[in-house]
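Hi there,

I know you've been waiting on this one. I reran it after we fixed the sequence typo, so this is the corrected version. Both the input and the resulting structure follow.
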Amino acid sequence: MPSPEAKWTYAAQLQDDANRLFKKTGAEGARGLPLAYSHLSVRGLGGADDAILAPTVGTMLMPWMARASKANITSQKAKLDSPLKKGERYLLRDFSGLVNAGEMMLVVGRPGSGCTTFLKTLTSHHGGFAGVDGEIKYGSMSPAELGPFRGQVMFAGEEDTHFPSLSVNHTLDFAIGNNIPAHGKRPDADDGSTLTNLQYTEKAKAELLRALELSHVATTKVGDAYVRGVSGGQKKRVTIAECLSARAAVQCWDNATRGLDANTALAYAQVMRDLANVSNTAIVVSLYQAGNRIYSCFDKVTVIAEGELLYYGPRAEAQAYFEDLGFEYSPGANVADYLTGVTVISERKIRPGMESLSPRTPAEFTARYRASAVALRMQKELDQHLASSEDLYASTLALQQAVESEKEWGAVTSFPETVNLVSQVNNALRREYRQRWGDQWIPVL
């Protein structure tokens, strides 16, 4: 355990747990699962066939003009989007990339650009889409092959949904209680004994509360619009802690810093960085606002506008790439804001002499990117990754065996749950009792 004199950090605690587990089992605590996607496109409903044209004096006098106009729009759309079916449109078009185990990728774009759709698609949450084309690989596994390993791929949405009458403590008790590894796969206590279920839960909870600065509100209700509880920023941190308890190998976070102040948002980014470095986790985070210190925590960055891929590549090269396209960067400005602002006419600044050379529309940005050296380099990296099938199979098999070995006795190996049915029922009943206790009526005299 880190020395009492040293400042406690989440990274040091993760490393200490990994060292104890290695000493106990001889197995590495970190387990990696790279995320690769090739020619990924997402189709949604609401194409040109669904367009409703507003009536004009001309179309009221000559109705056939309206029909001709809509037919023209549909035919033009069909020429551009020939693979689309009737009534469909592209939400994302032809994305390719790789997030290696231990890497972090930042996804930036204005609201409505497709960031959430991108993260949901990467984590195989395809409900609500008309169709998904292309290939997604988690190591050597396709989305259809996840099955009992579904818990290793996590999507954390933007909204914070909790039981308002439960305290922060009890909320995390349930989350951690359903993700407790088997006795032989837990780090030992200081005295060398194996941690019990309760001891493991309390230890993991205390570490998450400390890392996310929630210890002082541990006994406070989470609350909602009707029940007084923690603040909005604290509730977001409860969501983060709850998701981290799953210990997923691939994690996608949608606008995870919404409602957090600058210092807390930076602390979240540093926790993610620690998790990637120590636990070898592949992390994808979409942010609408990111300061430069947060931005520097990431390895790669993806820029999206109107469902088009404007840039995917190393984070350190993104600013220079757009500057080479002719867009001015104001010294001291947030790089992430600069990346999302280049597609906005009112925000971007074009270097004198580059007005006729700089791209204007998302389609033009995409065309310039695909012809760039960084795009060719990233495609080569992806191709080499997908070509190393034997190595991918071996590393994926090792993760699968590690996940199976962590399952509690009696847990069904073909299901993603870590604990058995009895433990699940006990945890659910305990949470129900605590929820009803928190909701109890107050007699009015």
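Quick highlight: Confidence is low (pLDDT under 50) at residues 77-81.

Best,
R. S.
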